[in-house]
Amino acid sequence: MKYVEQVKSILLTFLVLLSIIFTLLIWNYKPDYGLIEETQIEEVMVGQQKELNDVLKPYRLLYRQNDEFFGTVSPSVLNELYSYLRTWETSELDLINTNLSDEKMNGIIRTNNRVTMFFNEELPLQVFSNVVSFNDKAIPGASFTRLILDWSTLETNNQLQLLFLNTEKRILYRTYADIVNTDKFLTEVIEPAKDYSPYVEIERDSLRSLYVSKNPIQSTRYTYLIQEISPNLFKSIVFTQPKIVQRNIESEYSDRYTDDTSLMTVDTKNRILNYVYPPAESIVPIPSSKLLKDSFDYINDHGGFTGDYRFSSMNIEKHITEYQLFLHGLPIYSNMTTTPTRIITTWGENRIFRYRRPYYSIATEGEVYREQKELVSGEEVIEYIRNTDDSFKDIDEVVVGYYFAQDEAFILEPSWFTISNNEWTHISPERTGGIIDGLE
């Protein structure tokens, strides 16, 4: 037993040395890590992205010169005018009136040397600052439905007067813009108006006037091949984890896509999809400018404006924003309550709650047939409405648009429509007799 202590000492020394060796090995060990590549999330696009001003467009330009009206819906004319708007910097916005009568508002539009832009819905000034640069530190939280450009003093002081009129709230704002090249503006924007379609004002007792074409309208009936956008692309857009989404075919014309929290239904007959994310539902108030901007950004992030879609309606309380499809400057309306010619969003709690839209596009290369058609004048339409419809006083607008039908192809029939409370009614007074349909 006399060697026990020596053995213990040797064993302890060995263990200490072994511990030191392991420690040194750990300190000096360099593992061969492989290069970890950052996972790339594929960006899914269904169309080209657009600028905000592309959807903030009016449905009509109405010029007043020498006590006469001239109007146009031409996209090229509108784009030319917008190219000027975007270069202007205005003075401070002044509130002029907060209780305008219908007669006063009619008078503002009727004044000579003015062009009026007609918008379908109240447009927040804060959002329109993407089109016109306001020289104002605090843009008021107001909105407008008519933008009037007054060039009556342009040649004397190189200034345009801009009037922002809200026909619903009866409010008027005013500002001024300095024009660098007045001759160019008059030559390119104002002088061509005398060649546009002559319009007439339809005055109504204690109501806002209507403005319609004085002469018959030469238009075109179009037939287009259907260009479909795959719903699977939208599956990758609207769902946060597309790989776990399950697809079920419920019927011949109905598909259903689901994950744990959201649902997308696809109407394959009418080519409409409807996505909803119930957890995002919210009743928290959202300012109109934020609601419009959030809606636009959501759709535009995946190139969702697959045509000439224009901001057309907003329900602030329900957080709903709508964009109407246009072609050749005219709105396209359908007889289906599922609104296959509108993109509709409902905003929720910091994200989309509902997204409803068509999944087709109308492109010029898809045109297969066209046929010239003459529509009766606006004056004849007004006379027809007066004689057949007791609700003439309730009409907000009378416009020409396309009546949309689809089967194996898209058929776009030029027609007259009346608009009341964002609901349209298709009328054909010329020879077929009467009201055909009326839906939102």
UniProtKB/TrEMBL annotation:
The keyword ATP-binding does not apply. The chain crosses the membrane at residues 9-29. It comes from the Bacteria. CDD domains: YycH_N (cd15787). Keywords: Membrane, Transmembrane, Transmembrane helix. InterPro entries: YycH, YycH/YycI_2. Residues 5-433 form the Regulatory protein YycH domain. The keyword Transmembrane applies. This is Regulatory protein YycH domain-containing protein. The lineage of its organism: Bacteria, Bacillati, Bacillota, Bacilli, Bacillales.
